[in-house]
Each structure stands twice: as structure tokens, then as C-alpha cells.
Design a protein that fits this description.
The protein has a single domain, classed as STAS domain (Transcription Regulator spoIIAA). The protein is of the alpha/beta class. It has 4 helices and 6 strands. Strands 1-2-3-4-5-6 form a 6-stranded mixed beta sheet, sandwiched between helices. 35% of the residues lie in helices and 24% in strands.
């Protein structure tokens, strides 16, 4: 099922958050320039969806994501991984890898630098939506 056919929860210039009927969230990052604060708002809305539905699983579609700004990297580290934004305490994330090599490198750097706090996240990387979906379905809710 293409992500664009799923019920829309939130959308802005950074991308959108959708609800999958199998019981998980989908965050898709758009290509190109983002308005200031839109990346943070998108991540915050994902957290709100997961809390509201009592879900712990989500797909992070980073295939079109442009490299993160320093402020966005800091937010991911301090607020998302640091659990300072409302979200479930433990998350199961299937990542669809970014096409842009610099984006991949910056995201890998964030995960490496945050390794002590990363225990709150179970992460697996995928090349295809089907593989990410199948893996998520095998994870506990």
C-alpha cells in the first residue's frame, strides 16, 4: 500500500505523518528546502500520533530527505532521542534510507553520538517499503 494512500495525520513543508491500518505511524520527509521549524513540528506531530494511538512502531521514510541543519541535528539528539518531546518511551523504527549520501552520513553520525541514549530505540534500516513493513509487523506493539 503506497504511503500516500494512508490516512493523513499531519503535513507541512518538511513532509507528512500518516497512519497505517496495521498499527504504526509513517513519517515521510519531502525533498528540498524546509521552512524553519517544520522539521521539528513534523517530528513532534509523529510523537503525538504515537502517544494518541498507543503505538510504538513507525516507518521513517528518509529517501528524499535533504541533509539536516545543525539545529535539526541538535533537536533529534536532544529532544527526540533524548525523549524530551512527548512520545512513547521505547520506539521501534524502520528506516527507509536516504538517497543523499550526506544525509545518510549525518544521520549515522547522530546515532553514533547518541549511542548511550539510543537504548530507547530499536532501529532497522531498509531499502524497500515492503521489507520495512514486514519487519515492523514482526515487532511487538
Amino acid at each position: 500500500m503506497p504511503f500516500t494512500s494512508l490516512p493523513l495525520y499531519f503535513e507541512n513543508t518538511a513532509g507528512y505523518v500518516r497512519e497505517h491500518p496495521a498499527g504504526y505511524g509513517v513519517i515521510c520527509y519531502g525533498a528540498g528546502k524546509r521552512e524553519a521549524g517544520s522539521f521539528v513540528e513534523l517530528g513532534t506531530r509523529l510523537g503525538q500520533l504515537l502517544v494518541a494511538r498507543r503505538w510504538t512502531r513507525f516507518i521513517s521514510d528518509q529517501r528524499l530527505l535533504a541533509p539536516l541543519s545543525e539545529a535539526e541535528k541538535s533537536w533529534v539528539t536532544e529532544y527526540w532521542i533524548g525523549q524530551r518531546v512527548p512520545r512513547p518511551a521505547h520506539l521501534i523504527e524502520a528506516i527507509l534510507l536516504a538517497s543523499d549520501v550526506f544525509t545518510r552520513l549525518s544521520l549515522a553520525q547522530i546515532l553514533n553520538q547518541s549511542s548511550s541514549a539510543i537504548g530507547s530505540l530499536t532501529i532497522q534500516r531498509f531499502e524497500s517499503e515492503a521489507a520495512a513493513h514486514a519487519w515492523l509487523l514482526g515487532q511487538p506493539q
